[in-house]
Design a protein that fits this description.
The chain has one domain: 2-enoyl-CoA Hydratase, Chain A, domain 1 (Alpha-Beta Complex). It is 46% helix and 15% strand. The protein contains ten helices and ten strands. The strands form two sheets. The chain has a seven-stranded mixed sheet, sandwiched between helices. A three-stranded mixed sheet has the order 6-8-9. The longest helix is centred in the last third of the chain and has 20 residues. The protein is globular and about 60 Å long.
Amino acid sequence: MTGRREPGAGSPLVEVVSMRDGAWRRLILGGGRGNLLSLDLVRAFGRELHALESERGIKWLTIEGSGGEFSYGARIQEHTPEAMQTVLPETHRIIRRLLAFPSPTAALVEGRCLGGGFELALACDDMIAMEKSVFGLPEIRLAAFAPAAAALLPLRVGASRATRAIVTGQTQDARYWHDSGLVSMVAPQSGLLDAAAAWFDAHLAPHSAVALAHAVAAARLTVRAQAEPALDRAERDYLGGLLKTADAVEGVTAWLEKRSPNWQDR
């Protein structure tokens, strides 16, 4: 089939793996310990996503991490006000593209799924996680917040749970998020890919890829209609409001200097 990629394609930062004769495509985050969402990785992810958007016959796209972790989120070194003017819009661009991807999508979560990694997973239609996986939004510890999570998490689990996660930075395990309805399946500790494959074979493989594309686009209408304007507003507040505060600068500086922050509350 023209345009089909072989297993192991992609870049060192984002590996593309083809399964089930190309009907299931896996994007696997790389780039070192914790699969940090550096600007380079975000751009590589965007390129691979763009290449897959036009391919026919894809019935499922999954996002995964390598090395036993999903992603620790963004690089703290790129949390500075100057860097975030570029990093945040480019990260949100791939969030929007995942929300519009023309096939069902899922995050297959192993290990830690934190910050921007959690936001990437939230942009997927579904999540399957290993039992010992943990999820959290630790940005508040840097005097920041997670804009894409602010737009998406309330729609996925309700305002109360979402607000608690965003404003406390507390991590929770897969069972907690399964009980909230966010994680659809908790897989055995060593069987994440097998569980995902069994689900694909039973629930997506029998169907027409073009019908799945129309069905998933319709199923996302309400989420996209609410999440995309909310994401625009949250991004504007982050870049034009939060990053102008003294504490946002202090949070990153203190982390880089390995000391406790000295909050000025302004």
